[in-house]
Amino acid sequence: MSLRVKFGLVVKALRKEQKLSQEELAEKAGLHRTYIGMIERGEKNVTLENIHKISQALNVSLPVLFSRMPE
Predict the structure, then answer these.
(1) Which residues of the chain are under the pLDDT cut of 70?
(2) What is the DSSP string of 5-52?
(3) Nearest to 20 by CA among 33, 8, 7
């Protein structure tokens, strides 16, 4: 499983735990809904800046975000 897919799975899981739609997460992060969908499916190589925006929108630290990724 690629790193992009693993990251996308974590973002999707955290978003669902918080009962957020892709649109709601995108709005909170200042990103486009289709971009969030592509991240969740592992189709996009996300920049550090956007990873930071997503972590803030999900109210989790970067270490927590990365620690949830499967090996």
Answers:
(1) none
(2) HHHHHHHHHHHHHTT--HHHHHHHHTS-HHHHHHHHTT-S---HHHHH
(3) 33
Q: What is the pTM of this model?
A: 0.92
CATH homologous superfamily of 3-67 equals lambda repressor-like DNA-binding domains (1.10.260.40)
- Any idea where the domains of the chain sit in the sequence? 3-67
Euclidean distance between CA atoms 17 and 20, whole angstroms? 8
Judge whether 58 and 18 are in contact, CB under 8 Å: yes
Instruction: Round to whole Å and give the CA distance between 25 and 22.
Output: 5
